[in-house]
Amino acid sequence: MPEEALLKIEKVSKHFGGIYAVNNVSLDIHEGGIWSMVGPNGSGKSTLFNTILGLYKPDEGTISFKGERINNMYPYQIYARGLVNSFQTPRIFHSMTILDNMLVAARGHQGDSMWNSLFMRKKWQKQEEKLIDEALNLLEFVELNRMAFSPAAELSGGQRKLLELAKVLMAKPTLLLLDEPAAGINPVLAKKIFRKLNEISRNGTTFLIIEHRLDLLFEFASWTYVLNKGSIIATGKPKDIVNNPVFYQAYLGEE
Ligand SMILES: Nc1ncnc2c1ncn2[C@@H]1O[C@H](COP(=O)(O)OP(=O)(O)OP(=O)(O)O)[C@@H](O)[C@H]1O
Ligand SMILES: [Mg+2]
User: Fold this and answer.
1) Which CATH number does the domain 1-89+171-255 belong to among 3.20.20.70, 3.40.50.40, 3.40.50.300, 3.40.309.10?
2) How confident is the model at residue 255 (pLDDT cuts 50, 70, 90)?
3) Of 60, 47, 17, which is closest to residue 177 (Cα–Cα)?
4) Which of 70, 167, 208, 230 supports an S-S bond with 23, CB 3.0-4.6 Å?
5) Which of 172, 142, 140, 155 is nearest to 98 (CA)?
């Protein structure tokens, strides 16, 4: 029996007035590894992401996650099922310590209640200790553990990117969607981030990544979907896609 897809998109379309931003897209993401989506500017990649995340309702088609239909759910319900995007965690608060920024990211996910904090203090404290442990481990992973008690304002631009990555991992995503994680950062850091993502993917988080830096993306991705004008025009392993003339034509535009 074939393994069930983690994310299944069937004939999804999203229009903005007369613009077919996403046009009849079907694709499967299976559990494990780094999956990628590429295509020229305006080809519909971000619109498709936002539709998956529940920020847009598709005009047509269905989206299922772990066998459950999610295309009529609210973004927070989709998030709670482990389908996460980095922009859904709170922004970085500069006056707070790096560790506290991590804890804020986790708390939203755990759904603290007044009841818990007032009447179940023991349980709450245990949970808090566990969260601190997890946060420190993740900070070590992104090499920020020595700055855990410094205010986030002291982070460099690159370190802030790494903190954002660590923060989103506090939600323990099953499928993490990243829209251009390497945008605006230097090549050395970009490579470092992709190496980290690759490591995380071996521990059970599946990734779907949009990225314009194809050399970097294709080094780590095991599968890619190519979008053009809202439709999937090619799919396969990166090493095969780069030899597909359809892929080049999309990037070069029409004659
Ligand atoms: N909120 C919106 N309202 C109207 N049109 C939109 C909206 N969002 C996107 N579009 C249009 O839909 C099309 C797809 O845009 P989208 O942002 O999804 O492309 P993209 O592949 O992410 O591009 P890029 O690589 O530049 O980020 C474009 O023509 C864009 O102008
Ligand atoms: Mg985009």
Assistant:
1) 3.40.50.300
2) very low
3) 47
4) 230
5) 155
Mean pLDDT of 185-212: 92
The string of pLDDT tens digits covering residues 28-82 is 999 999 999 999 999 999 999 999 999 999 999 999 999 999 999 999 899 989 9
pTM of the model: 0.89
Cβ(170)–Cβ(88) below 8 Å: no
**Tokens representing 176?**
């993490």
Q: Which residue lies with its CA nearest to atom 6 of ligand 1?
A: 16
User: How far, in Å, CA of 192 to CA of 182, rounded?
Assistant: 10
Which among 208, 243, 203, 233 is positioned nearest to 223, based on CA atoms? 208
Nearest CA, atom 29, ligand 1 = 42
**C-alpha dihedral sign at 59, 38, 213, 82:** positive
Q: What's the CA gap between 243 and 230, in Å, rounded? A: 22
Q: Which residue's alpha carbon is nearest to atom 7 within ligand 1?
A: 16
Q: What is the mean pLDDT of the chain?
A: 90
Reduce the DSSP state of residue 85 to 3 states and report it: strand
Residue 138 CA, chain-centre distance (Å), reads 17
Domain boundaries, the chain: 1-89+171-255, 91-169
In angstroms, what is the span from residue 239 Cα to ligand 2's centroid? 23
- Residue 196, Cβ neighbours under 10 Å: how many? 17
Q: How many CA atoms lie within 13 A of 148 on its CB side?
A: 18
